[in-house]
Specification:
With 242 residues, the protein is α/β, with parallel strands linked by helices. The protein has helices spanning 9-26, 41-52, 80-89, 109-122, 159-164, 183-188, 202-210, and strands at residues 2-6, 31-34, 62-65, 67-69, 99-100, 128-131, 153-156, 177-180, 191-196, 228-233. The strands form two sheets. A seven-stranded parallel sheet has the order 1-10-9-6-2-3-5, with helices on both faces. A three-stranded antiparallel sheet has the order 4-8-7, with helices on one face. Strand 9 (191-196), helix 7 (202-210) and strand 10 form a beta-alpha-beta unit. The two termini are 13 Å apart. The protein binds fructose -6-phosphate (F6R). Residues 35-39, 66-67, 80, 132-134, 138-140 line the site of fructose -6-phosphate.
Length: 242
């Protein structure tokens, strides 16, 4: 893990967006997987600014969904897809044919998992992943206790995720399961960026970086990734023994 600590949220967003722009300049046909949630939102808005200034072109990239609340789709307020479309895919005019998301409303979620696994395999794997971390240490919806050798799967959400997840919804929403890429696919990605900001993430960040690698803290699996860049603000890094 390469740990980078910056002044504040704006700076980690700026540095992360620069990293992504440089990556895509080197590899215009990159296979990309970006998290929803609030942490990367400023990064996405900066990426849109870069594209609007003509400094980067994402039109040849493919975008793979990271996770979704089971029962919701892109038209549901608060869904992961809604976030990705509103903040990135629509402003960048990404072609539908370059976006690969699961249908979390499908009656056969197992088929959706295998569909995404096959798409990732057929494209030769994910090049660049951008992740956030849950206060419980989840990555995507790989919740505490998850097996590290899983590919895309459906999972019972952790109680913390059900409670914290309400922040994405205007009205209280029953959250029970998630569909998510697995830790195996995270570890097989060529480059991973993990962003965290704010003191609420400090405990999880410490366990991820300095704790033992255990499925009780899914993000600790990133210690096994050779090309993982951790972008932290001072608050999120406050407990690290740097
Ligand atoms: C969302 C996702 C989650 C979030 C994590 C942090 O697609 O995969 O793992 O990245 O829960 O969420 P925020 O950024 O809202 O604190």
């Amino acid at each position: 893990m390469i740990i980078n600590v910056y002044k504040d949220y704006n700076e980690i967003s700026q540095k992360t967006s620069e990293f992504i722009v440089e990556y895509v300049k080197q590899k215009p046909e990159a296979i990309i997987c970006f998290a929803g949630g609030t942490t990367p939102l400023r990064t996405y808005s900066l990426l849109v600014d870069y594209a609007n200034r003509g400094e980067i072109d994402f039109s040849s990239c493919s975008f793979i969904g990271l996770d979704e609340w089971v029962g919701l789709d892109r038209h549901d307020d608060g869904s992961c897809q809604e976030t990705m479309y509103n903040t990135l895919f629509s402003p960048l005019n990404i072609k539908e044919s370059n976006i690969f998301f699961f249908d979390a409303k499908s009656v056969n979620l197992e088929d959706e998992c295998r569909k995404i696994d096959e798409i990732i395999s057929s494209k030769g794997g994910i090049d660049l992943m951008l992740l956030g971390i849950g206060v419980n240490g989840h990555l995507g919806f790989n919740e505490p206790g998850v097996q590290f050798d899983l590919s895309t799967h459906v999972i019972e959400l952790d109680e913390t995720t059900k409670v914290v997840g309400q922040k994405y919804f205007k009205v209280e929403t029953e959250l029970t399961k998630g569909i998510t890429l697995g830790i195996k696919q995270v570890l097989n990605s060529d480059t991973v960026i993990l962003m965290a900001n704010g003191d609420k993430k400090a405990d999880a960040v410490k366990a991820m970086v300095e704790g033992e690698v255990t499925n009780q803290m899914p993000a600790s699996a990133l210690q096994k990734h050779d090309n993982c860049y951790v972008m932290l603000d001072k608050e999120a890094a406050a407990q690290l023994e740097l």
